[in-house]
Predict the 3D structure of the following.
Amino acid sequence: MFGVPWGLRPDGRRPRLVDTPGESHAWLAGCGAGAVDPQLVVRAIRREAADVFDERAVIHCAALDVTPPPISLIDARTRWGSCTPAHAGRPASIRLSWRLALAPFAVADYVVAHECAHLREANHGPRFWAHVHALVGDEKRHRAWLRANGADLHAILPKG
Ligand SMILES: [Zn+2]
């Protein structure tokens, strides 16, 4: 997850990612009891994704000097994220695809930074991209990675 390989460990308990310091991979536990249940795998990945997205948004929003908005998870085919800036008394909000957890960390982090930067600039103008560059550097390779591999992220644990 986020570029770190993980294995499945069905143990009948609640879905969770088990950190294994010193090992080259993590374990996704609680993905069934015996047979692996894809729904439970998705649930465990979503939980981990939500934690990482929240953590990264707090960091990016601090750098942008904006309040971190609530983040909700989506499973959209056509977009990896979206941002609704605060408007007419409504607070801002960000939506991110949980499938970004299946991408390398830097790619997922770019999308989080992209949506956070929209809290300052609700467009894709030069000032918007200047914010993105300040947060994550050159974003072109991350966009290229998503173009090249996006379909694969949707092929894993397809939406039921
Ligand atoms: Zn955008």
User: Anything to note?
Assistant: The longest strand covers residues 93-97. Residues 38-64 form the longest helix (27 residues). The pocket of zinc ion is lined by residues 114, 118, 124 (CB under 6 Å).
